[in-house]
Amino acid sequence: MHIKSKLPKSEITIFTVMSGLARKHNAINLGQGFPDFDCEERLRNLVAKYLNDEKNQYCPMPGLLDLRQSISDKIQLTCGQTVSPQDEICITAGATQALFTAITAFVHPGEEVIILEPAYDSYIPSIQIAGGIPRGYQMVYPDYAIDWNEIESMVNEKTRMIIINTPHNPTGTVLKKSDLEALENIVANRDIIVLSDEVYEHLIYDGATHQSVLRFPKLYQQSIAVFSFGKTFHSTGWKMGYAVGPKYLMDEFKNVHQWNVFCVNSFTQYALAEHLQTPTNYTSLPTFFEQKRDFLTDRLKDTPLVPKLSQGTFFQLFNYAALSDMDDATFAKYLTTEIGVAAIPLSPFYSKPPGDKVIRLCFAKKEATLAAAAERLAKLAK
Ligand SMILES: Cc1ncc(COP(=O)(O)O)c(C=O)c1O
Asked: What is the distance of C-alpha 322 from the center of its chain?
């Protein structure tokens, strides 16, 4: 039988490739973005409690109402905005499903989606499955600044969506209030939806404020924001997340969600609903991760790797131009196989890589792991 692939150019993700190489060469994996420490014991106990308390059947289609209420309370506390638990929140199987559902719900064949590259790798395939056309705007090292006039010049009658991501993977940059205001002006009076990937909302440093689309009432009316409990509560393997948006958009989102998964894992929703009621469980995260960022940066200060201090996420970029002429994929492989530390190159996040000599390291690791990696990287003597 002949089948016609919807993603004929799709390759194995760079994360899988580099993690495989890390295992083969016994390298310390600072490549893939997940913690090497467990999620909190209290949260694990809550999950066990509900698992053993007959909370194992279907939840309501948009998710457990108690969890949606806890999320609404959190939004009130962190953004000062009121969102309806009944109408404006839907619990999803991680942020990835929320992104996929939003894209397939709103993007029709032939319509265009503007993405800002380097971009998280699920965006383009999701757009293509929907029959949409990705249009990449290139952000470049070292500032990764966005020229919103240029974004506006990319907009035409076919533009249906603009995807943003703040704090940003892989660059560790965060959008400013002025960025969100510029975006608000661009989409105003146009049938364009903003899909805002905010999975690292609580991983933001140096006293900065996360500029969520939820803070901008006018922009919010045209937005769907996407979040991940995996990133917030060190539980990436559970694949739990949620989407937030105005009712008229969420009705359409749920229209696709119900035929996609209908509802997601039940007992973790009960546990997360309870865990979220203690705000320090998420307000403590900036300090927790900032220490790790500073620890790694300090340990690498005598190497030729030049850091671009992360403003958010658990990633930090390092420029290796003083050390090598290799392209970033070759250099990341060299680090993995010869130095024993796995890193991620940035070129796979671009459709047309600009050739920057930059790699991404993940600092969501135990201090001992970061110290051991730094010891190996010290071989890259100045
Ligand atoms: C920017 C970004 N968006 C979405 C996701 C996916 O999140 P989840 O694991 O909740 O699906 C990730 C995970 O790495 C990410 O970095």
From this structure: 30
